[in-house]
Amino acid sequence: MTTMTADFFASNLQTMGSALPGSDLPWLQKIRAEALSTFSQNGFPSPREEEWRYTNVSAIEKKLFAPATSHTAVPINEAWLQSFRLQNAWTMVFIDGHFSSEFSVLAGLPEGVSLLNIANALANKADTLKLEKYLGQAVSHKEHGFIAFNSVWFSDGLFVHIPASQILEKPLQLLHIATQADVMATTRNVLIVGDMAEAQVVETYIGLDNAYMTASVTELFIGQHARVTYYKMQCESEKAYHFGGTYIKQAQNSHFDHHNFAFGGLLARSDIHSDLSQASECELNGLYLGVKRQHIDNHTRINHLQPHASSREMYKGVLDDRARGVFQGRVIVWENAQKTDSQMNNRNLLLSKEAEADTKPQLEIYADDVKCGHGVTVGQLDEKSVFYLQSRCVDEDTARNMLTFAFANEMVDKIKIKGLHDQVLEQLLVRFPQEGVSKEWL
Amino acid sequence: MLSIKNLHVSVGDKPILKGINLDVKAGEIHAIMGPNGSGKSTLAHILSGKSGYTVTAGSVTYNDKDLIDMGPEIRAREGVFLAFQYPVEIPGVSNIYLLKAALNAIRKHRGQPEVDAMDFLTMVKGKLRLLEMDEKFLYRAVNEGFSGGEKKRNEILQMAILEPKLCILDETDSGLDIDALKIVAEGVNSLRSKERSFVLVTHYQRLLDYIKPDFVHVLANGQIVKSGGPELALELEEKGYSWVEAA
């Protein structure tokens, strides 16, 4: 980190520090102080770090985005917001990293479920105790610079606690809106899902047509036999920088499904890391679409810590123009994790000669009785499929368009929430508006 | 309907078909039999317009038009249908969408308006019953996760809906158990008409127990070495291909 950057953030913290939530709580002060010491030493991640080798974030340091001190005075276009809001969901809205009760919808939440912003959660004792127990437990600030930064600067975030055996009928939506230019929205989310509970969570990122930075860290704790389906739709502005990390601790027999749609941002990086206990299951799905000069990086890590757990992973990328897609998937099977069943796949479709896909699947296996596999493809459309469609009367251009859409649509089709499915589909069509493809078949 | 004259086809420098002559009239069923490597599949592919083959001599005319000059989609719209030996799985494209896109492409080609959605669905459901296929098939991705029998039935379903004039069945019987074979054969038989012709490419006589051909041709080493009626297939079954290859 340059001296200028270091000075900039140091002076920012002086003015901002006392405004950050929990500044009066010693345990949180300690977390922030330790993270600050890490961040001051190392700054944002460098391509010299193995897990950042394809993604250079030095532009973020140079931009000197200032952490947003409050949410905007810019009026929000209601129709635009509405098009990303899920109907029939509980929605928490964060604007530039600060909670907006005005736009949030929380009516009818079952008794016993906590769903509130971190700043408010830290104002009551029961939730504070939970936060003290869980915050920083799914990911260490030492993981990399963005976690350290987030731990120091988070201005708010989501706190969820779902008691044991509670099944949430409606999805929880976490809607992040970036409205101010040249600022950084930093949120920390902590979700605790009790034993045998079930929940669907949707995380949506949108922003006005500005340069800005999102740095969001989510920690998710899934209890025994609990099930969580988590969707992320990242539609940041095309000038924006995005870091979003989700770190999961899965207890025994828990089930976690993640669907990651990475569409926006000039430079976007997503981390999904899960630690699996005995007989737990984890399924990671992803779709990244890159156009123009977008750089979209997806990093996943699955830690098989105990026996009999299974993991499935399928990430697909469609890259056009001069876009670059990165997939780094790590699966680590520890000594004790016998009978692990793991499969990782990454497929990339390159639509232009200048587009690039970097893919790096890594299997590290320290147990001897496991079933693990991985597969990677980078290429063009399958000519057999093109011919098959042609032999069914479809002209070649339309056949290629259909197959490109079909390639991406396979991931969209996995979405079980109708409203979200339609939103994601819309984003896919906006990015690849292709003649001869009609919406009805998608 | 279809006239193949002295057709020579190569893949790269290697000649595969070495002078095929075949006339198929409207309403006729021709079976092309032959051992592996005789050029059966190449013949089916060249008729459907698959790339990778070079016609070095001869001609193929279909309804008085040069078939070789047409792109695969034009042939299909003109009424040539290839039932694939290995139907391709296309995740993300539903059967119903492909069927509709195909049918509308044919209608556009003929200068007709797009098919009415309700009429289309009624028609498709009727054809499904004929092939004993569940309606759920329509909303599944094309051939994805289908069993061998389901894939072949799906090919026949497409054929039933697109109503082609010339149907080429490439090893349709391969990988089918006897029940699936019967259903597929019944489907084909129900499509027989005075205007519609079939070319059945097959290794085994088994299919011909259920679909009775008018003519049987034996292909060996890129040439038709013997032609006859349905009895020829039975003779082949009994004596094996070495009998004709030697001749």
Description:
The complex is a heterodimer of chains A (442) and B (247). Chain A is α/β, with parallel strands linked by helices. Chain A has 2 domains: 3-277, no CATH class; 383-442, no CATH class. Chain A contains 10 helices and 20 strands. In chain A, strands 1, 4, 5, 7, 9, 11, 13, 15, 17 and 19 form a 10-stranded mixed beta sheet that branches. In chain A, β2 and β3 form a beta hairpin. The longest helix of chain A is centred in the first third of the chain and has 17 residues, at 26-42. The radius of gyration of chain A is 21 Å and the shape is globular. Chain B has a single domain (2-246), classed as Rossmann fold (3-Layer(aba) Sandwich). Chain B contains 8 helices and 12 strands. Chain B has helices at 40-48, 72-78, 95-109, 117-130, 148-162, 178-191, 231-239, 242-246, and strands at 2-11, 14-24, 29-33, 54-62, 65-66, 80-83, 90-94, 141-142, 166-170, 197-202, 215-220, 223-228. In chain B, β11 (215-220) and β12 (223-228) form a beta hairpin. The interface between A and B is medium-sized, with 26 and 33 residues.
Helix content of chain B: 25-40%
Main sheet makeup of chain A: 10 strands, mixed
Summarize the helix and strand pattern of chain A as letters. Answer: HHHEHEEEHHHEEEEEEEEEEEEEEEEHHH
- By DSSP, the count of extended strands of chain A is 20
The number of helices of chain B is 8
Show the helix and strand layout.
The complex is a heterodimer of chains A (442) and B (247).
Chain A: H1 3-16, H2 26-42, H3 58-63, E1 66-67, H4 78-82, E2 90-95, E3 98-105, E4 114-117, H5 118-121, H6 125-134, H7 145-153, E5 158-162, E6 172-178, E7 183-193, E8 198-207, E9 213-222, E10 227-235, E11 241-250, E12 255-262, E13 267-276, E14 281-290, E15 295-304, E16 310-319, E17 324-333, E18 341-350, E19 356-365, E20 371-379, H8 383-390, H9 396-412, H10 418-431
Helix pairs in contact in A: 2-7, 8-9, 9-10
Chain B: E1 2-11, E2 14-24, E3 29-33, H1 40-48, E4 54-62, E5 65-66, H2 72-78, E6 80-83, E7 90-94, H3 95-109, H4 117-130, E8 141-142, H5 148-162, E9 166-170, H6 178-191, E10 197-202, E11 215-220, E12 223-228, H7 231-239, H8 242-246
Parallel strand pairs in B: 3-10, 3-11, 6-9, 9-10
Antiparallel strand pairs in B: 1-2, 1-4, 4-5, 7-8, 11-12
